[in-house]
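One chain shown below:
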Amino acid sequence: MAGEMSFTRVLIANRGEIARRIQRGCRKLGLESVAVFSDADRDAPFVAEADHAVCIGGAAPSDSYLNVEAILEAARATGAGAVHPGYGFLSENAGFAAAVEAAGLVFIGPEPDAIARMGSKIEAKAAAEAAGVPVLPGYRGEDQSDARLLQEAEALGTPFLVKASTGGGGRGMRLVSDLGDAPEAIASARAEAQSAFGDPAVFLERYAPRARHVEVQVLGDTHGTVLHLGDRDCSLQRNHQKLIEEAPAADLPEAVRDRMRAAAVRLAQAIGYRSAGTVEYLYDPGRGEYYFLEMNTRLQVEHPVTEAITGIDLVEWQLRIARGEPLALTQGDVQFDGHAIEIRIAAENPAENFHPETGEITLWAPPADVRLDTGVECGSVVGHHYDSMIAKLIVHAPDRTGAIRRAITAIDAFAVGGVGLNLAYQRALLAHPDFAAFRHHTSGLPEMFPGGWTEPSADPRDMAFAAMALHLRLVPAGASPWESLGSWRLTAPAGQSGAAFYWDTTKDEPIRMYGSGSGLTAIQPDGQTITVESAALTGCRLSGRIDGVPFSRIAYVVRAPSHWRVHLQTPAGMTATDLRTLEDQHLQRATGGSGVADLLSAPMPGAVAEVRVALGDRVKAGDTLVVLEAMKLLQSLPAPVAGVVTEIYCAPGDTVAGHAPLIKLDPEENT
C-alpha cells in the first residue's frame, strides 16, 4: 500500500472490549464505525455504541466472527472503506487480510505477506536469524519424519519443547524432560496442532526454565519508518496465557533492554512491517541472554500499558498509518513515563480449577479514576461461546511499587455480581512477595501457590459488617423495625428488644442483630459482639464508629434468587457473602434444599464435546461422564456418585443450558 488511502467508515471485525476500544479510536479521528455481531452479541454494548451494526451469523465463531464472506458482505452493505481485525479471531489470518484488500478495502494492519511469514514460527525464526536476532537452539527443518525429529531431539538434549509451527497460546506444545517420552510428546503435539490450527508441523526448541516473557512494541508506517515504543513484561502466565502485564519490563539490564529494542526494529524493517506489532522474547536471567519467540502481527491485548507510559494512542496510529500517513515522531520523540500494569479480568473461578463462569451480570461497579477497557456492563450476559476475558484494568503510577499498590486498591474497590471473576486471584498475584521482588517467571505459579490457591472469605468481623449492611438495606438507619416486619420476630411489646436474624448460607447458626442505627450490635454464633455507633448504609458505603473511631467500607447489597449477596471491601480485598433472612431460611427448608446426588447437570451453558458412557454402564464416583466445551475450554464432568447409567439426556454436538440434566445414575447403594 502506497500513498494516501481515503476511508471514512471502518468495519471492526471483532467483538467485546477490543471492538469498543477501536470505536473510541475511530471517534477520535472523526471516522464512523461499523460493528458486526453474532446472534449471541445482539444486545452487547459494542453493538449499541457503533454508528452502524450488522448481524453476520450465529453464536458459534465459525458462523460469525470467523466468517470471512459474511464480514466482507457487511462491509459492502454499509459502505465501509477499511477493516480493523482487533486481536484474536481473524487478526493474524493472512488469507483474511488478502481477501479484504482484494475486495478493494483497506486492511488496518500489516501486509498479508508479513502476516503469513510471521505466522509460521519456523519461518519467523529464520527471518529473525537473518536479521541478527538471537533464537533458541533447536530444530526447525522441513523434514518432519519421526526419525529426523527424534535424531534432532537426542542431539539437542533435554529439557526441550515440541512446539506447533502455527498458532499459539500453548496449543500443540509439549515439554520433554526424558528422551524416552519424546515419541509420545511429538505425536500428541502434532495431533493437537492439526486439530487446533490445521497444520501438524512442529519444531524443537531448547527449554529455558525460570525464563521471563519480555516483548517490544513496534510501530511502522508505509514510508519505511519503524520505531519501538518500549518493552513490556508478561511473565505471569497460566498455561501460556498471560494474566498480568506491565511496562516497562522491570529488573532488566539496560544493555539487554537496548539490544532487545534494537533487534525488534531490525526485524520489523527487514520484513517491511507496517502498523502496530510486537516482537516477543524469552529472557533467561541466569544466562543474561534473550531469544526470539515470535512476532504478533496485530494489536496486543496488553497494548494499554504501552499507551500509558508513552502517551501514544496505538489504535489512532494504526488508523492513520492505514490512511498512508507517515509517522509524525522520531525515535527520540518517544519518551517513557512511570510504570503501568494491566490486569486481565476473566469470568472464571480460579479456586475451582479456573472453571468458566457464565450468566447475567447483576452488579457492575468498577473503581473510579483508573482505565477500564471492558466489553460488558450491568445487565450483560456472559455466555459460553467466546473467550472468558471480559475486561482489562489498567493503572499508571510514577514507579512499579506505586503501580502495584494502585492496582490492588482498584481491585479492592471493584464489585461485580451475578458472574464470578478472577479478581481475587489477580490481587493475590499482585500482593505476592515473588512478584514484588521479581522472582516470578513464566512457569512459576506452582511455586507462588504450592498448595494451590483458595479464595479469601470474610472473617467473623467482616461477616458481621456484611450482615449489618444487609440489615441497614432492609431496615434503613433511623427507621423503626416494627414498621417493616422483614426478618424481625421478637417484639418490644413482648418485653424484649427487637432482634433480626441473618444466616450465612454455609452455617447453621444465625448472626443476631440488635438495636438501631444509633447503636447497632451484631452477635456472632460464637458469641463475639461488635457494636457500631451511627451505623449507616449510604449508597454503596457502610459507615459508622467503633469505640469512637470512624470507619467506612464499600458495600453493595444485591438480591439473588434464594438469598442476599453482600459485596464488602475488606483488608483482604473485596469479598462476597451470601446471607439469608428468616423468610429465606424457611423457604429453603420448605423446598428441600438443592441438588440431586444421582443426577449430573451442566455447571454452565456449553456444547457437549463427548459423552463417555452408554446406558447400563457401571461407573465410579469421579469418572468422567461428559466433556463440555465452554469459553474455548474443555470441562470434564465427573460422576457425582458410583452407580449405573440409567438415562442420557444429551449427545455430542448438543448445546445445553446451565443446570440442564445430562446423565441420570442409579446409585450403587441401590444396586
